[in-house]
Amino acid sequence: MGDKSDSGYDPASLPDLLPMYYRKLFPYGPYFRWLNYGGAPKSYFTNREFSFTLKDDVYIRYQSFSDKQEMEKEIQKRCPYKIDIGAVFSHRPKDHKTVKAAAFQAQEKELVFDIDMTDYDDVRSCCSGADICNLCWPLMQIAIKIIDRALRDDFGFKHMLWVYSGRRGVHCWVCDEVARKLSAQGRTAIAEYLSVVKGGEQQTKKVTLDDPIHPSIRQSIDIVRQHFHDYSIKKQDFLGDEEKQKKVLALVPDDVLRKTLEGDFEMGSNSGNWWAIIEKREKDCVSKGSFKASHHIVEEIMLQYCYPRLDVNVSKGVNHLLKSPFCIHPKTGRVCVPIDIEHVEDFDPMAVPTISQILDELNQTSAAAADDSGKKVKDYKKTSMGEYLRIFDKFLKGLESTWSGKILKQSDENREF
Amino acid sequence: MEIVDPKSRSKRTRKGVKLEQKYTHPLQFFHTPPTDTISLQEFEEYAVERLKVLKALDTAGVRHVRGSDKYNELVEKEIKKTKFGPILRTDRRDDEFLQRLDHISHFILRLAYCRSEELRRWFLQQELELLRLRFQRESPESRQDFLRENNLNYSPISEDDKRDITPELIAASGRNTSQAHTQEYFKVPFVEVLDLISKRKVFLSDGFAYVPREDMISILLTHYRAHLSHSLAVTCRALPHLEEDDRLLPMVCGLSKRYVGKDYTSKKTNVGQITADMVEMLSKQSFPMCMQQLHESMKRDHHLRHGGRQQYGLFLKGIGLSLEEAMTFWRKEFTKLIDGDKFDKNYSYNIRHNYGKEGKRANYTPYSCMKVIMSNAPGQGDYHGCPFKHCDEALLAQKLRGQSLSKEHIDKIMTEVKGGHYGVACTKHFLAKHGGVEEQDINSINHPNQYFEESQRILRGDKKESLKPVPNTPRSQYSSSPSQGTPKSQKIPESQGTPGGQMSGIEEMEEDDDLMMSLDC
Ligand code: SF4
Ligand SMILES: [Zn+2]
């Protein structure tokens, strides 16, 4: 995907389109409302690191802006191919050379997660690498639902911003105050808690569950179960041929059961009844109590095929940079738009507008609305970016409700000085 | 702390105020540095005694499962031999000497072990284990006192509240027990029990963890880890000032060097002796399993992911590959898949970085086995890690057979793997690969570069090199030596440099102030 053929976007045109995008469509207002966090403290925005990737992979770190106007000006001047958001530092990042290195410290940042389809290559049969399609995208839906639920119910976080990365994955920004203040240890612990599929290329069986299963994993299994039939069996046909069956059987640690299943597989005819066979055999074994190693083979297979695979290194550090929402993915031209957590199923990555598409839309509407008087409508609202901005706005409203109280408190405190 | 040199009688005072130290509890959190006056001789002696204790914990942890009878037995035996002898007894409540020893020696070792990531990691882990061990031997009242003193006491949740969530509490414990019915549970913010969170061993709901009384030590350890990790980073940053004190520095350096052993930063004499095209041959001859695996997957894929490039690259640096040769080596393999331009853009920064030519210009040291095994476990697409730990048993056995090792040897190796003794398995692998070599001819393996050097030594026919280990401890630590592990020049990273793809790696390297490990590895 991402070729000119199916989205009308030509990567070669990016340098011409970006200036227009940054001048007319990039949503500076809402974007600033987010990163300013109500202006308490004020340094939260001014000490935030941004980094730009320019043409020819020229990469500049430690950019920072004193206010919205300066940010707008700089972005329009540089027209970055990519913007990354980093930590809030002890000093303004652009002054970092004038500060002692030891004193220049990353202090806070949203807790972030990065889920990338390339990490699922061993369990999807439709595409590989950077490609995605309708047959494998459900993996991201499952991932979002599982991680979002755990962050909400287990950790008590409320302000998650989910963003399509523009090509093959999703990002999550947890913006609650507790999350932003987490130490590297805290971030690591949460990432570990959420990591279930473990091990490198040298390890076949990557999920081993405790007995009894932890309540949080139980919830995740329930979510996987809701999708398993449609996704694994229908879309992926994950037991469809001998090679696929071998891969699944390799995850059965119990020798006797595996042998039995090998025999059974002679009979079935599609993923659906093969899976039914596995489920039934496992149940028999459990009820007879004939397992030594694991009691949860069915669940372990389901999780190995469907559980979110986090790039934990992205989450661990306070200092780690992550691509900003509303960037344009240079290869696909798609905007990194927010995803509505209440309608994850409706999100179609293939329908996300490209930069050329929204600029066209803008041209058309401004031509049509040329003689239209009345109050000024933001340009992005005239394009198909509008619906994604509404999602962002909903997120912002939630966030703002938390700091309105805090700002009052702070101004009280300030009065004492 | 004030140090008096008995010979010169000159006083060095860093902290002006001198307070009468009062110990309110046999355990300490080490918040305030000692203000006592001690002699240089005491200074060193105290530190050495504590090191013996930490060393004993490390050794016991390698040989036995932490908390097992054998482990406790060994630890007790070793600690009894030191001045810390009575520390595990509970009837030494008012032992002023012991508390002073404990206090002072801890702060001295902080100085000695703050100087590199590897040293900090080691020190932190042993200190946490020491506190855990001591805390568990305290009476319930004393434990409560200690928690209260550090503002960590909570009250248990009511029986009614507990009843509502009992099934979850049982499931979260990972054990099939009915203990949840009789145990007391505490509701604490999740950030207080990070090690239970990372192991997923506690029930979490709406930001609160429900912790059974027996796991409340986790709160203590979370706080202690954060406190100590932070203090070590602060001490490290403050160290340049201390270095002006001409007598302390050599002693402090000596302390970590003496007990930590070699660091395998490539020695000047080594560099240049190994060239890029020798690596292939050497990999067959003298590489440990972990490095063979990385080498082979790189040859096959003409690529390695970041974790692999770090582990392998620093190892190669350690065996004597110069920066220029390293460039040649990586370039040759990678450009079979990508063009030279892309290689320069995406990878050369990282390689120069490892050689201290970019970023904060630290001279990075090769990873020890402990680091390989305990941190940064391999994920999807990764080939790094330690095969004895991170490889399926069946696949590992198959690889060993591929090296034409005898079944007897393979069985011996696999037994150690099953017991979780990866270093021992690796030593057995070494013996199997080097016919005619006996266990006593080599030092047991705890560093990939040690494996390499031992192998080369044997192939040359040289005698075993004594590592000057601590008496009674067969295993010595390989890690960054103080003078090299810490970034010398505090140069701020260039603002131009690596493209996005490489960013994650650099962040990771620069963010080693905060450590996170599981105590139960
Ligand atoms: S024990 Fe050490 S040297 Fe041996 S394979 Fe594992 S990490 Fe490598
Ligand atoms: Zn697909």
Automatic annotation (TrEMBL), chain A:
Pfam families: DNA_primase_S. Its EC number is 2.7.7.-. The keyword Transferase applies. Its cofactor is Mg(2+); Mn(2+). One of its GO terms (cellular component) is alpha DNA polymerase:primase complex. PANTHER family: DNA PRIMASE SMALL SUBUNIT. This is DNA primase. It comes from Mizuhopecten yessoensis (Japanese scallop).
Automatic annotation (TrEMBL), chain B:
[4Fe-4S] cluster binds at residues 290, 369, 386, 426. Belongs to the eukaryotic-type primase large subunit family. InterPro entries: DNA_primase_C, DNA_primase_lsu_euk, DNA_primase_lsu_euk/arc. GO terms for molecular function: 4 iron, 4 sulfur cluster binding; DNA binding; metal ion binding. Residues 473-497 have a biased composition (Polar residues). It comes from Mizuhopecten yessoensis (Japanese scallop). Keywords: 4Fe-4S, DNA replication, DNA-binding, Iron, Iron-sulfur, Metal-binding, Primosome. The keyword 4Fe-4S applies. It holds the Pfam family DNA_primase_lrg_N. Binds 1 [4Fe-4S] cluster. Residues 282-452 form the DNA primase large subunit C-terminal domain. Signal peptide: none annotated. Its cofactor is [4Fe-4S] cluster. DNA primase is the polymerase that synthesizes small RNA primers for the Okazaki fragments made during discontinuous DNA replication. GO terms for cellular component: alpha DNA polymerase:primase complex. GO terms for biological process: DNA replication initiation; DNA replication, synthesis of primer. This is DNA primase large subunit. Residues 464-521 are annotated as: Disordered. The lineage of its organism: Eukaryota, Metazoa, Spiralia, Lophotrochozoa, Mollusca.
